Amino acid sequence: MSLWVDQYRPKSLDGLHYHRGLSQRLKSLAASGDFPHLLFYGPSGAGKKTRIACTLREIFGPGVEKLKIDQRVFLSPSRRKLEINLVQSNYHIEITPSEAGNYDRVVIQEILKEIAQTQQVDLNAKQRFKVVVINEADSLSRDAQAALRRTMEKYMSNMRIILCANSTSRLIAPIKSRCLLMRVAAPDSEEMTSVLLHVAKKENLNMPEEAIEKIVEDSSGNLRKALLVMEALKMQSPNLTGSLSIAKPDWETYCHKVADLIVGEQSPARVMEVRTKFYELLSHCIPPTVILKTVAERVVERVDESLKADIMHWAAFYETRMRIGNKKIFHLEAWAVKVMSLYKHFFFDIDMSSFD
Amino acid sequence: MPPRSQQATQKKAKPAVVSLGTTSLSQPISTSQKRFNPLTAYSLQGSSPSRGPPAKRRGGKEKIIEILDEDGEEERLHEHDDRLWVDIYEPITEADLVVHVRKVEDVRRWFTEAFEGGPSGKLRRYRRILALTGPSGTGKTATVQVLARQMGFDILEWRNAIGEASSSTWDPSFGINENYESTFAKFEAFLNRATSCRSIFPDTSLSPSVSSTSSQRGSNPPAPSPKHIILLEDLPNILHPQIQIQFHSALRAFIDTTSQSEFPVPIVIVLSDATMRGETRDELLTSGAGGYASSREKGGILDIRTVLPRDLLMGPYVRQIAFNPVAPTLMKKALTGLVDRHFSHTRTSSSLSHLVAPTKETIDTVIESANGDIRSAIMALQFTCIAGKKSKKSKNKKHDSGSTVLMESTTRRESSLALFHLVGKVMYNKRKGDPSNASATAKDIKKERALDATLMDPPRLPAHLKEHGRRASRVDVDLLYADSPIDSSLFSLYIHQNYTQFCNELDECQDIMDCLSWADSSGGEMWYQANPHRFHLLTLGTLHSLPSPVPRRSQKIFKPEYFEYLAKEKDAWEAVNDTRYWMTVHRGLGSAESLTTDTSRWSKLEVTLELGAVLKLKQTQAGRKWPGSEGLPPSHSLFSKLVFTSGEGKKGQQVDEDVVGDDDQTLAEDEVDIAVAKKFAGGENDGAGGDWLESDDIEEF
């Protein structure tokens, strides 16, 4: 049993359904002997990792799919042990630096050095270099990015780096300039529909037109989400009859309720209530940025036109602080209180003008 | 860590007071006028060649009372009167104790139950460990000793005798001593012997490092009593993680063995509360010592939670009795009685005329500056009597003010504001000219007036800043910072948890929240990690934003929920990791080959944000159709269950009105928690209190 998302993930560049131009380019890159460092960026669910895997396969052949998982122990500068899972084949290694928390610099340096110092021993290998795939590169700390920048040049002879990030804005410029940037845009609705139909066909499913339409609309360019929703629908009613309702993830509905709370009443007591909800969301591993974004979007839907810009402005404002600060709840709550106060003043002012 | 080392030097230096008594006549000190640094004052005296018998330097953690005992013992030979009053007037009977009667009763009942087993006779096996906690100088050890005398049991006390062992056996020419036994091994041996064997000669010690203190101290000849207890006051170095583990297992083993035996020996652990000083950590952080040092710092506090493992502390075998600082009334009674006894005694017995009886005001000052520490109060009293003699010789008029300043500077203990009062002080936002409380006494009102008179009115603000105009605040932020028992980070959490009750308007909330948010993010790259001025910024920002005066509606102060949720979040991340691992392995099994590339595709965030619904469905499906065939690991259910609660458990109630009530209830539990646990609090001022203070008590602490 595996999820459809994984099961029907294209294995080769030719099998990809959309962004054919990009695939073509990757193919010629892999064929040329001169492969640069790459930086894949784009929204989640657009197919970045799929393309990375396909490119690797294009470079090294099917051997790259023989993976093993290593658990490695690194020592932080303060002698704390960090256990990190590494996925690697003979040709490449994948790391997710966010697993190392604050010590990502150590992990990155160790791994890169190790890779760089070992020569490719497999004589049949198509290329002389190994590839290091760094997932979630935008969560790399500044230290780690700075460390990366030097190593990228130094070990160019037997190592290439492929970075994968949602946005390039959090990567320092020197890294961006050392990589070939590959933007993987979210698929449009037609492309999504074709992928969904492709999977449905393989599963011998007869998906109703409107269901697919709804899924596509609901998942807003996130193909992974779309496929998961489709699978969930199938699991709910195996023969796909009756009214199909797309279940939103729990956290999303929860966020919407929080937004309703904020708009519903503005008082110190309500602040406490909203805080508890924020705490609850945070304790379920929902990233604070996602919470802020989801709640803000929902609040904006429900308020007067003239307030929307302000609300989003403050959301961005407190999001920045949140990134610098430690206690996420402070910033979430500060935003919520700000919005409440804005909202209240809005109505208060209207009342006053009507009196005049 | 400046304050602790300071404390340590103070402790070590204190015995020098003894010598002060003998040398002060030959060395006139012109101290009556200037306020001088207590530390340098001591060291000056301490380094003088005519110093009395040197204080024995033993293990760093040596308790002051024991040092004093030694000195007292030795000096008795030379001159009877040079003993410290603390030793001369050590409480012998229960009436002498300054501990609240109920506390003594609690301890006595515990001992009775430990020896006789209570009414049913079965309690004996559950009275294994008694932990006495509280600030130093509140009579914890004294209570045990008085009760030992009264109820007739022996005390076997453990002492870390590092000095003795190493000085006698250590020879630099031979590297390692074969007979070397680690201190902890000695401790274990002591514990074993003390629990299993009964001393034949109650006078002699079980091992070189053990002394039967009751026989030493008691004046009556020790009757061979079958009962004895183990007193642990001087613990092994449990700040070392490994020793802490060993210590915990030793305690567990102790409970295991003795709860079965017929005449089990109870352990009494006496533990003085050490408060964490807020500024220390902030300063450490900013000075670049970094997170590493600070995390060690955090663990470096010897409190009940480090000494006893959590499961034991919560379990049936351990009882904790917390002592409060000595109430001023009790202390006054005790000190006056002591002075009376001392001076009537000296008049009859010998010529101890170089001491003057302290005036009533002096005693009051001593009590005020002692912060509920009886030992420090007695020491201070003796010191004033000696110092007072000398200054009397010079100028009579200046005597009073001079000695007060001197005494204040030398005897004031580092006061620490109870957490409760700290938060209260900030949240009630008192400003100049606030109407006094309905329950305030005339004296309080007078004091408030006097305080107001010293406050300067802030300059008038220009028109465009009018809304920022406030009356002068009665809160002295610097003092607050110096006395704060918590660091600024925890302080901000407390403000965050409680501010809403104190606000009238949403705008006030907004200002406070903005200040909290700003202070939290203001460290960043400019300072090492945190803004060093955070405490001040937080306090001033909060004071500025709060309404003035703050309406009284019986607000209660709650503990921050932050940590609870943080723990939950940590568990949830574990579940996410487990799920990811399961997905990896599971897929691997499916494809029969080695693992495919698909596996690592799922990042943590993707799992949490997108997989929840599918996992839940799979869970129900697997349960219904093919139970077990999917090979679902338990961690999987843990994760999906988690999602389930987030979706439904709270959501259903969230819109309802009752949730508010529910929340209040859980908060109320927290509040009990805070009153009982008092993790950081120095304790309340009233001797009786285990309950919590009403808001009115905050003012005058």
UniProtKB/TrEMBL annotation, chain A:
Residues 34-187 form the AAA+ ATPase domain. GO terms for molecular function: ATP binding; DNA binding; DNA clamp loader activity; hydrolase activity. The keyword Protein biosynthesis does not apply. Its main location: nucleus. SUPFAM superfamilies: P-loop containing nucleoside triphosphate hydrolases (SSF52540), post-AAA+ oligomerization domain-like (SSF48019). It comes from the Eukaryota. Keywords: ATP-binding, DNA replication, Hydrolase, Nucleotide-binding, Nucleus. It is found in: Nucleus. CDD domains: AAA (cd00009), HLD_clamp_RFC (cd18140). GO terms for cellular component: Ctf18 RFC-like complex; DNA replication factor C complex; Elg1 RFC-like complex; Rad17 RFC-like complex. One of its GO terms (biological process) is DNA strand elongation involved in DNA replication. InterPro entries: AAA+_ATPase (IPR003593), DNA_pol3_clamp-load_cplx_C (IPR008921), DNA_Rep/Repair_Clamp_Loader (IPR050238), P-loop_NTPase (IPR027417), RFC_lid (IPR047854). It holds the Pfam family DNA_pol3_delta2. Belongs to the activator 1 small subunits family. This is Replication factor C subunit 5. It comes from Macrolepiota fuliginosa MF-IS2. The lineage of its organism: Eukaryota, Fungi, Dikarya, Basidiomycota, Agaricomycotina.
TrEMBL record, chain B:
One of its GO terms (molecular function) is DNA clamp loader activity. One of its GO terms (cellular component) is nucleus. Its main location: nucleus. It is found in: Nucleus. Residues 1-10, 20-50 have a biased composition (Polar residues). Residues 1-61, 205-226, 680-701 are annotated as: Disordered. Residues 205-219 have a biased composition (Low complexity). Keywords: ATP-binding, Cell cycle, DNA damage, Nucleotide-binding, Nucleus. It comes from the Eukaryota. Pfam families: Rad17, RAD24_helical. Residues 414-523 form the Checkpoint protein RAD24-like helical bundle domain. InterPro entries: Checkpoint_prot_Rad17_Rad24, P-loop_NTPase, RAD24-like_helical. One of its GO terms (biological process) is DNA damage checkpoint signaling. Belongs to the rad17/RAD24 family. This is Checkpoint protein RAD24-like helical bundle domain-containing protein. It comes from Macrolepiota fuliginosa MF-IS2.
